[in-house]
Amino acid sequence: MNTKRWIALAIAAGLLVFSVIWQAAASFMTADFEEIFSMNDTPFEEKVIEEGGGAGKIAVINLNGVIQDTTGGAFNTSGYNHDKFLEMIEAAGEDAMTDGIILRVNTPGGGVVESAEIHDKIVEVQEESGKPVYISMGNTAASGGYYISAPADKIVAHPATLTGSIGVIMQSINISDLADDLGIDFNTIKSGEYKDIMSASRDMTEEERDILQTIIDDMYGDFVQVIVEGREMSEERVRELGDGRVYTGSQAKELGLVDDLGSLTDTIDMMKEEQGLEDPQVVEYQPGLGIDQFLGGTVKSMFGEEAELHGMLELLRQTNAPRAMYLYSE
């Protein structure tokens, strides 16, 4: 490569670096830092979606995406924030002006622990505040999405909602044959016989499968009990329905897994009528724009698809160990 080409390449690289720096500087210069930093500790802001003439209000809280407690730093631009979602539910329960809570659930489920934490928070708010909690199901409210819905005072699904998927799943991969073909050896030093259970480098033994099955059965029993208590169904009936399959909203209504069919607007109207709420204001809780969200948005705008890829890799890195999940996956 001659001198002129080297100079041209250096100029191009310099322009690229300058462009990145300029975009970052522009984002910072146009940002409202007072608002960003003041809202960093605020779990949400209220957006009015329906004006009301009455004194009370209905709070709508959205759950979108896989239920999991992950942190991806500045590259984490995913829509679900576990801690803030729990804070929103608690805040709605403590707000004296809020007469009812509607959770808009659109999730295939997720972590066992995270789903249980949401379930417990809903029950806590119901018991301590006495406020009704309704569920409005979106496209999908399956597995963990149904788990958290079970204790609600009313569950409303769209006829085409995919729900159910009652059960627990744990998966791993076995790449031992591929490793043999590639000439790859695994060296494992462990303190006990089962320390590398579900290892990807070898076949699972029957004893290991039995151990893991007892764990899954125990978690499944908890899932069943949540539905027994929340839906007032017999354990036998819940186990009959809870074979892992998904149901449409219409099927779930016929089976008693949901109470009614309709949209979010229908759910709001149902709460007004059934709870005797006179023209309440309806607000939607939205995550506040804190510094983490600002940085995530800035990185995403600067690097586009590369930021999305980094976020996905970070998520995979955090969840690469086998874990039990209340999760529906196609």
Largest sheet: 9 strands, mixed
| β-strand amount | 15-25%
Stretches with pLDDT under 50, minimum 5 residues: 35-40, 72-77, 311-319
Q: What number of structural domains do the residues give?
A: 2
Report the total helices: 12
Number of strands: 11
The N- and C-terminal alpha carbons lie at a distance of 51 Å
Mean pLDDT comes to: 84
CATH architecture of the largest domain: Alpha-Beta Complex
At the fold tier of CATH, the topology name of the largest domain is: 2-enoyl-CoA Hydratase, Chain A, domain 1
Radius of gyration: 24 Å
Structural class: alpha/beta
What is the H level of CATH, i.e. the homologous superfamily of the largest domain? 2-enoyl-CoA Hydratase, Chain A, domain 1
Task: Please estimate the helix content.
Answer: 40-55%
H/E element order: HHEEHEEHEHEEHHHEHEHEHHE
CATH class annotation of the largest domain: Alpha Beta
Approximate shape: globular
